[in-house]
Amino acid sequence: MDAPDTALLDTLNARHGLPGQLRFVAGPGGLPFVHIHNGHAEAQVSVYGGQVLRFRPHEAVSDLLFVSEQATYQTGKAIRGGVPVCWPWFGADPQAQGRPNHGLARTRLWSVASTAALPDGATRLTLALTDTPDTRAVWPHAFELALEITVGVALRLSLSTRNTGGAPFAITQALHTYLAVSDVAQTTVNGLDGCRYLDKAAGAHGTITQQHGAVRFAGEVDRIYTGAPAELDIVDGASNHTLRISAEGSRTAVVWNPGAALAAGMADLADGDHRRFVCVETANAADEVVTLPPGGEHRLVAQMFTVPTRFGGPLPSHGT
Fold first, then answer.
1. What biological-process terms (Gene Ontology) are attached (predicted)?
2. How many folded domains does the chain comprise?
């Protein structure tokens, strides 16, 4: 998709635009984007991938999400940054059939289900994705996905999976949040003290380790934490800024940064970009597999908001 589909944008604005608050525009590569601006914050969403790309509360000095300046905006490719939707599997193809990492949702054009201006001044955008012959060729199940994106004082993402077929299916998934930081070397993730994690970094060979204290970044970090608490704090020590992520429908948290060596081989990251983000992901991954019977539904929720400095600092130890 290169040239913008102006007829599609006109239709979306006529049906779902909210004057002065939400409009559909042509993004890079001609992809349909949503611009949201209300009394609380501004945000940008790519309908392709169902992916939030930017979120900035008005009191924040910069965007809370990281998007690579080298990101690819092309059908069939994933966009590096924001909040990609990993679904119906997280990580490598679980059946080793050569299918793409992180599933199919982040490389499909979603549909716009609804928009709403909420009484508290927030804006809600609901995107949908359903099975097609194309998706069933990759993953042979009938499903309905709904992603509710609420832009207010906080950014709230609610991903609902519904099994519309006649047989059970199992999924893993993640809201793969790229958080902007001033310097990853001065950033910590608090709240995981005492949790066990699967260490997937180079040379770790998938070992199980227990977290002691805050998570720090001195190289590649690729960890799947089990038994994670509902709230985690990301403390940007260089800017004295704290962001809190709260989760529902999840007991797994993924913490990732590629480090300098791995990032150097990633074409959609610029030199030094690895220092400018950390990924703290709300997930059902590793042993936390969600199995849905016919008609069953599961909701995965991530909410992020800034924490006043005086309230920041480490969260209590979760234990084991």
1. carbohydrate metabolic process
2. 1
pLDDT of residue 7: 94
Structure pTM?
A: 0.94
In a domain? residue 318: no
What would the pLDDT profile of 50-65 be if each residue is shown by its tens digit?
999 999 999 998 999 9
236, β-bridge pairs? 187, 241
Q: Is 176 among the catalytic positions?
A: yes
Residues 6+ apart with CB under 8 A from 198: 206, 207, 208, 223, 224, 226, 286
User: Active-site residue among 16, 176, 274, 318?
Assistant: 176
What is the chain's mean pLDDT, rounded? Answer: 94
Q: Assess contact for 280 and 242: CB atoms under 8 A.
A: no
180: helix, coil or strand?
strand
Residues in the chain: 320
Instruction: Give CA–CA dist 183/189, Å, rounded.
Output: 13
Q: Is 291 inside any structural domain?
A: yes
Q: Which of 241, 274, 281, 318 is catalytic?
A: 281
Q: What is the pLDDT, as a whole number, of residue 115?
A: 98
The string of pLDDT tens digits covering residues 299-320 is 999 999 999 765 444 454 443 3
What pairing do the DSSP bridges indicate for beta strands 41-46 and 51-57? antiparallel
Told to judge if 42 belongs to the known catalytic residues of this protein, a careful annotator would answer: no
Q: Provide the domain limits for residue 55.
A: 6-311
Which two structure tokens, joined as six digits, stand for 104?
A: 């199919």
| pLDDT at position 3 over 90 | no
In this structure, is residue 234 part of a structural domain? yes
Distance CA 99, CA 147 (A): 23
What is the pLDDT at residue 206? 81
Question: Which residue's structure tokens are 């992809």?
Answer: 31
C-alpha 164/C-alpha 296 separation (Å) is 8
